[in-house]
Amino acid sequence: MAQATARAHSNIALIKYWGKRDSSLNLPAVGSISVTLDALHTTTSVHFSSEWPTDRVELNQAPADEKTTQRVSRFLDIIRQNAHIDERALVSSANNFPTAAGLASSASAFAALSLAASTAAGLSASPAQLSEWARRGSGSAARSIFGGFVEMHKGQRADGRDAIAEPLAAADFWDVRIVIAITSEQAKQTGSTGGMEQSKNSSVYYPAWVDTAEEDLSAMRNALLQKDFTRVGELSEYSCLKMHALALSGQPGLLYWNGVTMDVMHAVRNLRRQGIEAYFTIDAGPQVKVLCLPEHQNTVEEALQQIPGVLRLITTRPGTGAHLLGEKA
Ligand code: PMV
Question: How far, in Å, is the centroid of ligand 1 from the Cα of 103?
Fold first, then answer.
C-alpha cells in the first residue's frame, strides 16, 4: 500500500497524564484514563513515493511550519524503520476544530498519522502496536487509537512496549456529554512537553503526584465501570486540579488558565449547588470541558453561554477509535 487515509478523534483525560519517565521514547511517568470525543477529529492522508526528496506536510491545506514538519518526519522515520522502506511522504492533515487551542489536536493528529502512515507503508499493525507508535508522537495520542473510555498504562519496560493504551469500555457503553467552553483561540505559551519537564525538575509536589497516581486510576476505573457519574465527575475534577496544582507549583509556576477559565469553573460548581451534576476538567490550556449527563446538557449549555468571555461551546459525546477511510496501492 502506498497511500492511506485515516481518521482519529481527540480525547479528554479524566485522570491526567503529566510527567515523563523517559523523554526520548516518550514514556509516561503515570497512567491516565480518557474519553474519546466524537465531535473533534483529524483526517490524515499519507502517500509514500520514491520520487520525493523530502517529507512534506500540509495542515488544513497550507504547508506546515518547519518545526511541525520535522516532528512529523521524525515520526515517519519510526514507521519507515519498521516497514524497511526509505520513501519520503506527502502528509495532508485536517482538523475539524481549531488547532493548538488546547483541544488536544496532537492526540487525534498522531493517532490518525500512526494508522495512515503504517497502512501506507504496507504494515498491518494491531491496535496495541498503533497505540505504541502514536505515543511516540504524543502521549495522549496513544489513547486516541481507541474509542469510548480508554486507559493508558505507564508501563514498566525500558523499551516502552507496555506503555500503551487499552479500551475500558466502548463509546456506546455510557452516554455522557462533554460541553467544551472555548475561552481563547490563541495558541498556548508552554506546550505539554515543556510544562511536564518543568514540573518534574522544579516542583516539590512531583514525587507525590507520581506516587499517588495508581490510586486515582483504580478509583476511576471502578467508578466508570459502575457508571457512577458522581464519583467519575468528582475524580475528574480532583485529577484536573491536582495536575494544575502541580503545574502551578513549579519554578516558574505554569498558569494555563485565564480569568474566564476560572469563571467557568465557578459556574460549574454553582450548577452543582443547584442540583445539576456537572464537573469540569482542563488540560494544558484555557478551555474548560464540562462533563454532564444528557438530561442536563441544555441547562449546562445555557449556563456556560451566559458567561462573558466564553467564545463558543462545542458539545460532544464518546466517540470511536482510529479507523481507515481509504487506501490505494
Ligand atoms: O499528549 P501530550 O504530550 O500533549 O500531553 C497531554 C497532557 C494533558 O492533556 C494535560 C493531560 C492528558 O492526559 O491528556
Answer: 10
Residues 162 and 200 in one domain: no
What is the SS3 assignment for 241? helix
Atom of ligand 1 nearest to the CA of 17: 13
Pocket test of ligand 1: the residue of 140, 220, 235, 256 to mutate, having most ligand atoms within 8 Å of its CB, is 140
Q: Are residues 99 and 125 located together in one domain of the fold?
A: yes
11 Cβ contact partners less than 8 Å away, ≥ 6 residues apart:
34, 35, 36, 37, 104, 107, 108, 140, 143, 144, 150
Together in a domain, 195 and 168? no
- 120 in the same domain as 23: yes
The answer to whether residue 26 scores a pLDDT higher than 60 is yes
User: Is the Cβ atom of 286 under 6 angstroms away from ligand 1?
Assistant: no
The atom of ligand 1 lying closest to the CA of 283 is 10
Mean of pLDDT values over 178-187: 90
**Contact yes or no for 286/256 (Cβ under 8 A):** yes
For 50-93, how does the pLDDT look when each residue is reduced to its tens digit (9 = 90+)? 999 999 999 999 999 999 999 999 999 999 999 999 999 999 99
Residue 181 has pLDDT above 60, yes or no: yes
Q: How far is the CA of 303 from the centre of ligand 1 (A)?
A: 27
- Ligand 1: distance of its center to the CA of 1 in Å? 32
pLDDT digits (tens, 9 = 90+) for 100-109: 555 667 999 9
Q: Total structural domains in the chain?
A: 2
**DSSP 8-state code for residue 318:** B
Domain range for 258: 177-316
